[in-house]
């Protein structure tokens, strides 16, 4: 159909003319005809874009990042900057997007920005102003060095020293430093990452001094407190029975070779109290040298009183937990190396959050304590467990209620908290798999054992021993009690007297006690291997080389005699017949300061008695001495004053006779405003200097006591003392002011050798 339609050319261009007319006319060869235009797009209306909104600036290091919301129709933007609020502004960028970062700025300068939007129609007004202050990034805090290590402890061995300390927070390693002088200088010997180190290849007998510092990436801490140790070659023990493999068989304790072992040793006090107020565990050295000193006494067991809180690291102790436990373990291992068994004794305990700083009637945290201790030592057959030091339930009674409490625990009379009984503690220990021997106490501070057999706990391992303490001032302190109560127990069970002693610097009580225990297969340890007073403590030694006190000498002699050894001869002390041991003659005006700081003054006529002064008098070559030629020296005094007369005498027994009399010549105020003697106390203390305390007189007035009736002025009272002198120094001390009392007045002193 369309093929028959004539083409434009056939009509001579008429159709083309019509079309062109419709488009605005016909013109031969015009541009319009050659380039037709779409009438819908010709000459559109273009508007300026809207002002940018949401403009904000974020400061950086020497730069600012400006952002804004896009303006409709904008093809680009002008970012303008000023250092003055409100302009004038300088264009600094022409981005096509809604952000721009202005760089190379000056940190600390405030910059103000506005933004305008652009298109083909023109530029919008400026946006609202924003500002930013570039700043350099803050430096991260400088890392700090770790804290100084604490709890440093040293244990000497054979040519070695083992060190341990508490971890410092953040430390990555430590520097162990050593010196051979207490003042340094120190040389670094190791850089361990852990909190222990063993220094080896040392010279036995040389004292080494150690400090430890902590390190991290920031640097090194200050040095710790210094400790010292002296390596010593192990002393070859006499041919004695091994203490390895200890176990109960019947009523005896056997070793791993099934040989009977008689345990004789000492208590080592200090581990129960040092940890509460200091960062050390032991009171005195715990090195090989101190153990060697024990071996010289033929000691084969040491009892360690443990503080429950320090072992568990609870209730705010100064040193506890791992550091405390490590020190105990190291010492026990040192003992075992030297064929000395150890008793771990729960000495001090307390309920709940109460600090363990004294004896308590019954245990409380003990299950946790014994679980930890048993797991620690269950593989060491030379360790014995002492369940609880000295129970005293039911207000320190020996009643059935007290014994029931001891065995079963719970709510007990005289105990303000829920107690844990011995049966529960035995079960706790056995639950760990431990088969160590367990010592089970009695009541009344473990001295009364009259119902021990009836209240003996059941033990799946059958490894129990009776625990007994026996001091001269306790209840069961006679041969009748020993044979009636203790002997039946010895016939049925092993018995370990964990503490024996007396408070008179003698051995008159322990000698028959040890003879009884020896003849009945008992075991015993004396209190204590410490350098305190041999009476009030009582102490066995005066130094840690093993020099015995008067009390310790009797114990040492007994142990050595058991093994057929001759006790060493006591040291010879030179005797000065006419002068004080320090060489000051009577009548001299020179005073002497002793090594312990005591100042000794010459005893001369007309000397006024002054506070806390020490006087001395020489013992003549005769058997008797009498006072001074100046009686007023002994009569005149003042309230609160006292003098001590130390008389140099040969060792031996003496009778000391003192004449005491108040003097009417005192001025008002010495004994009260009424110038009377009301409230005066009489009495004088006499003792052997450095080896004992006050001795009660054999007759007369004790030291001190209130005088009833009130003494008559200028009337002498005679008091007699029997004194044993072991160190050539006999001391006389008038009793000073006690409460409402006043100083005793001496007018005669007589010392004579006992017949």
What does it look like?
- The protein has 755 residues and is of the alpha+beta class.
- The chain folds into 5 domains: 33 residues, no CATH class; 80 residues, Immunoglobulins (Immunoglobulin-like, Sandwich); 77 residues, Immunoglobulin-like (Sandwich); 245 residues, TIM Barrel, CATH 3.20.20; 162 residues, Jelly Rolls (Sandwich), CATH 2.60.120.
- It is built from 14 helices and 40 strands.
- An 8-stranded parallel beta barrel has the order 19-20-21-22-25-26-27-28, surrounded by 4 helices. A 6-stranded mixed beta sheet has the order 29-30-31-33-39-36, with no helix packed on it.
- The longest helix is centred in the middle third of the chain and has 16 residues.
- The protein is elongated, with a radius of gyration of 47 Å.
Proportion in helices = 10-25%
- Outline the low-pLDDT stretches: 1-43, 571-590, 592-596, 598-643, 661-685, 687-708, 735-745
| Assembly category | single chain
The major beta sheet can be summarized as:
8 strands, parallel, barrel
The spatial strand order of the largest sheet comes to: 19-20-21-22-25-26-27-28
Number of domains: 5
Short account of what is shown:
The protein is 16% helix and 26% strand.
Give the helices and strands, then pairings.
Layout: H1 14-22, H2 31-34, E1 53-59, E2 64-69, E3 76-82, E4 90-93, E5 99-102, E6 111-119, E7 122-123, E8 130-132, E9 153-156, E10 161-164, E11 173-179, E12 187-190, E13 196-199, E14 208-216, E15 219-220, E16 227-229, E17 247-249, E18 252-254, E19 264-267, H3 274-277, H4 288-295, E20 301-307, H5 308-312, H6 322-337, E21 341-348, H7 366-377, E22 383-386, H8 393-396, H9 400-408, E23 409-410, E24 419-420, H10 422-431, E25 438-440, E26 464-471, H11 479-492, E27 495-501, H12 510-519, E28 523-527, H13 550-562, E29 592-593, E30 599-602, E31 613-618, E32 624-626, H14 632-635, E33 643-648, E34 652-660, E35 681-682, E36 684-688, E37 705-706, E38 717-725, E39 729-734, E40 746-753
Helix pairs in contact: 7-10
């Amino acid at each position: 159909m369309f093929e028959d339609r004539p083409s434009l050319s056939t009509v001579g261009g008429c159709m083309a003319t019509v079309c062109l007319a419709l488009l605005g006319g016909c013109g031969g060869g015009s541009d319009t005809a050659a380039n037709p235009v779409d009438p819908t797009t010709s000459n559109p209306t273009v508007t300026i874009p809207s002002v940018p909104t949401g403009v904000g600036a974020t400061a950086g290091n020497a730069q600012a990042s400006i952002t804004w919301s896009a303006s409709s129709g904008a093809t680009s933007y002008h970012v303008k900057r000023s250092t003055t609020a409100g302009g004038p502004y300088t264009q600094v960028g022409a981005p096509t997007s809604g952000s721009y970062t202005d760089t190379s700025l000056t940190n600390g300068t405030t910059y103000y920005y506005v933004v305008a939007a652009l298109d083909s129609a023109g530029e919008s007004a400026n946006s609202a102003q924003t500002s930013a202050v570039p700043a350099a990034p803050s430096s991260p805090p400088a890392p700090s060095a770790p804290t100084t290590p604490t709890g440093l402890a040293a244990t000497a061995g054979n040519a070695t020293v083992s060190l341990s300390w508490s971890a410092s927070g953040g430390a990555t390693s430590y520097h162990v430093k050593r010196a051979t002088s207490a003042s340094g200088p120190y040389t670094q010997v190791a850089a361990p990452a852990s909190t222990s180190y063993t220094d080896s290849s040392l010279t036995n007998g040389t004292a080494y001094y150690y400090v430890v510092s902590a390190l991290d990436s920031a640097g090194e801490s200050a040095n710790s407190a210094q400790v010292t140790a002296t390596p010593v070659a192990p002393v070859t023990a006499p041919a004695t029975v091994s203490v390895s493999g200890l176990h109960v068989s019947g009523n005896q304790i056997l070793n791993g070779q099934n040989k009977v072992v008689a345990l004789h040793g000492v208590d080592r006090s200090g581990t129960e109290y040092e940890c509460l107020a200091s960062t050390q565990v032991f009171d005195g050295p715990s090195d090989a040298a101190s153990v060697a000193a024990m071996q010289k006494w033929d000691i084969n067991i040491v009892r360690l009183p443990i503080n429950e809180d320090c072992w568990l690291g609870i209730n705010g102790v100064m040193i506890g937990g791992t550091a405390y436990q490590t020190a105990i373990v190291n010492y026990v291992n040192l003992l075992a190396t030297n064929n000395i068994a150890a008793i771990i004794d729960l000495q001090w305990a307390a309920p709940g959050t109460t600090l363990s700083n004294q004896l308590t009637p019954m245990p409380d945290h003990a299950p946790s304590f014994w679980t930890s201790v048993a797991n620690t030592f269950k593989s060491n057959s030379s360790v014995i467990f002492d369940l609880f030091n000295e129970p005293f339930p039911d207000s320190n009674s020996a009643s059935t209620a007290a014994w029931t409490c001891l065995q079963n625990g719970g709510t007990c009379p005289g105990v303000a908290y829920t107690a844990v009984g011995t049966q529960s503690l035995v079960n706790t220990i056995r639950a760990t798999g431990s088969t160590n021997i367990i010592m089970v106490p009695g009541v009344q501070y473990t001295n009364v054992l009259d119902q021990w057999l009836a209240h003996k706990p059941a033990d799946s391992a059958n490894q129990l021993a009776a625990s007994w303490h026996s001091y001269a001032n306790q209840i069961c302190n006679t041969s009748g009690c020993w044979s009636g109560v203790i002997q039946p127990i010895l016939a049925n069970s092993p018995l370990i007297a964990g503490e024996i002693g007396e408070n008179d610097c003698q051995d008159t009580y322990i000698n028959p006690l040890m003879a009884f225990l020896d003849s009945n297969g008992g075991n015993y340890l004396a209190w204590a291997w410490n350098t305190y007073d041999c009476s009030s403590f009582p102490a066995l030694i005066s130094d840690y080389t093993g020099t015995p006190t008067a009390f310790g000498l009797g114990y040492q002699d007994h142990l050595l005699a058991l093994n057929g050894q001759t006790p060493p001869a006591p040291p010879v002390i030179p005797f000065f017949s006419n002068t004080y041991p320090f060489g000051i003659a009577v009548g001299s005006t020179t005073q002497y300061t002793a090594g312990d700081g005591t100042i000794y003054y010459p005893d001369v006529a007309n000397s006024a008695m002054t506070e806390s002064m020490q006087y001395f008098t020489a013992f003549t070559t005769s058997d008797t001495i009498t006072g001074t030629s100046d009686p007023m020296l002994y009569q005149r005094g003042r309230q609160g004053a006292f003098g001590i007369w130390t008389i140099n005498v040969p060792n031996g027994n003496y009778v000391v006779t003192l004449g005491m009399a108040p003097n009417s010549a005192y001025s008002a105020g010495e004994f009260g405003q009424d110038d009377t003697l009301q409230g005066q106390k009489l009495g004088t203390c006499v003792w052997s200097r450095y080896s004992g305390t006050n001795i009660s007189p054999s007759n007369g007035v004790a030291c001190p006591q209130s005088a009833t009736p009130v003494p008559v002025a200028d009337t002498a009272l005679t008091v007699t003392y029997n004194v044993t002198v072991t160190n050539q120094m006999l001391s006389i001390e008038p009793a000073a002011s006690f409460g409402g009392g006043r100083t005793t007045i001496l007018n005669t002193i007589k010392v004579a050798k006992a017949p």
